[in-house]
Amino acid sequence: MTGIPAGDIARVGVVGCGQMGAGIAEVCARSGLDVKVAETTGEALEIGRTRLFNSLTKAAERGKVSAEELAETQARLSFTTDLGEFADRDLVIEAVVENEQVKTEIFQVLDQVVTRPDAILASNTSSIPLVKLAVATSRPDQVIGIHFFNPAPVQKLVELIPALTTSEGTLSRAQLFAEKALGKHAIRAQDRSGFVVNALLIPYLLSAIRMFESGIASREDIDNGMELGCAHPMGPLKLADLIGLDTVASVAFSMYDEYKEPLYAAPPLLQRMVDAGRLGRKSNSGFYTYG
Ligand SMILES: NC(=O)c1ccc[n+]([C@@H]2O[C@H](COP(=O)([O-])OP(=O)(O)OC[C@H]3O[C@@H](n4cnc5c(N)ncnc54)[C@H](O)[C@@H]3O)[C@@H](O)[C@H]2O)c1
After folding, report:
1. Which residues, judged by CB distance below 6 Å to any ligand atom, belong to the binding site of ligand 1?
2. Average pLDDT over residues 75-100
3. Substitution candidate for ligand 1 out of 43, 93, 126 with most atoms within 8 A of CB
4. Is the dihedral of CA 248, 195, 97, 158 positive or negative?
5. 3, 143, 238, 249: which has the highest count of C-beta atoms within 10 A?
């Protein structure tokens, strides 16, 4: 990774250490930034830390990180269950569950605890309007969407989503951070549910689930169809399992709420699987089962 300092951003906070939070924290730490990660409980924090360190170890085994870089990267990471420890952060990236109320409460707390006057408060949300998170704070000009892709250490893209209230200065500092500090390719999108990538991807995933639900083809044939027929690296049902079926359902819900278009409506099977706790890879069971 690049390790070029992001102008004035040296200390990053990441809220949530699930698959995205852990990946974002890894990208930032591997780029030379000081990273503090917060989770709800000690147990969730331990699971998140293990996830992050396992991913770093794998990167070292693949030769992407030297033994020295591995030790330095680990030393740049710290973990907490207390958001009060985010006082000195230059940038905080929220990456908790795709739930507007949970995210809003976190932005209210961050607004209270982060003391640097020009700190950026960012969300990794896939679909929740950024303006709603921005107006929950006293600094709506400093709130922006910085949307990473899964797995964050591998995927090159970041979407930047300014809210109606976001200042040009916040947008350009976020762009500098994404491109120069992290070496990502940044694209900009308006604050409309789904932005660019999910606005295109989610209807496709929902169509594949509807196809499976209606019995038109087996899950393997649907996935093989897109992998072998369209050269996609992963078929849609495998990809939905990777994203997390709860996240797919929540994003579909937000997009349907925004546009009221049937193509964004979650098929009943998706909701039943979420209700059954079959969330995809993260629960070892989704359209496929995992070891
Ligand atoms: N999964 C994807 O492919 C993907 C891709 C891009 C963006 N996103 C977005 O990233 C966000 C996180 O998704 P994920 O896939 O990592 O979910 P996840 O379920 O893997 O992780 C969510 C984490 O948030 C933690 N959390 C919940 N409430 C919290 C709180 N109050 N404080 C601290 N931590 C809290 C949970 O303990 C959990 O570890 C969502 O907004 C999602 O839309 C997901």
Report:
1. 15-21, 38-40, 44, 48, 95-98, 102, 106, 124-126, 147-150, 243-244, 247, 251, 282
2. 98
3. 126
4. positive
5. 143
- Alpha-carbon distance 37 to 30, whole Å? 14
Q: CA 182 to CA 28: how far, in whole Å?
A: 7
pLDDT of residue 8: 84
Tokens 């020009």 belong to 118
Is the pTM higher than 0.90?
yes
Structure tokens at 277: 């706790």
The first and second tokens of residue 96, run together, are 């908790």
Which domains are present in the chain?
Answer: 11-188 (3.40.50.720), 199-283 (1.10.1040.10)
Residue whose CA lies nearest to ligand 1 atom number 6: 149
Query: Cα of 228 to ligand 1 centre, how many Å?
Result: 31
Q: What is the pLDDT of residues 101-159, one digit of tens each?
A: 999 999 999 999 999 999 999 999 999 999 999 999 999 999 999 999 999 999 999 99
CA–CA gap between residue 184 and residue 279 (Å, rounded):
29
What is the separation, in whole angstroms, between the first and last Cα of the chain? 31
